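Technical note accompanying the year-one report. For the benefit of new consortium partners, we illustrate the data format agreed upon in the data management plan: each record pairs a sequence with a structure-token string. No post-processing was applied to the example shown here.
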Amino acid sequence: MTRSFHHRTTVGAVCGILLFLLLALYAFWIKNAVVGLIMAFLLIILVEHTLHSEYIITDGKLIINNGKLSRAKSIDVNEIHDCKPMTSVFGLVHYLLLTYGASNRVVSVQPQNEAAFVATLQKEMRNTIRKDLQETLKNYSVEEKELGKEVCDAE
């Protein structure tokens, strides 16, 4: 099952977009085209990141797309150790801090519906563990049958 979650637009992101917009307009107003173009470019990157970021949970993987201008990051759900809800900036920004991998790397995600994101992530983790266990048992039974044939042949 594939489930996608959109990135939450925060007050800080909206303030950043407005700040770069005003700086770009001011730079063009005072006829400083180079600074205006730099601010407009940064504005495009910020808007693109804010609007097009999404989190996709599918086939035992969490895929983090931070917009069209950046690479997607793929994390196996079996590697995720911890998921902590965090707050910053005087409680205005809420995010989930995921710890994964052997080296305890961290990544922050801001899905719009945190509760559904965590529930889907837990469900995908259980399904992945169940599939791995079934595959292990299947391989074990095949090996056991082959071992039984070898014992019969030896007698």
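Partners are asked to follow this layout when depositing records. The chain has a mean pLDDT of 86.
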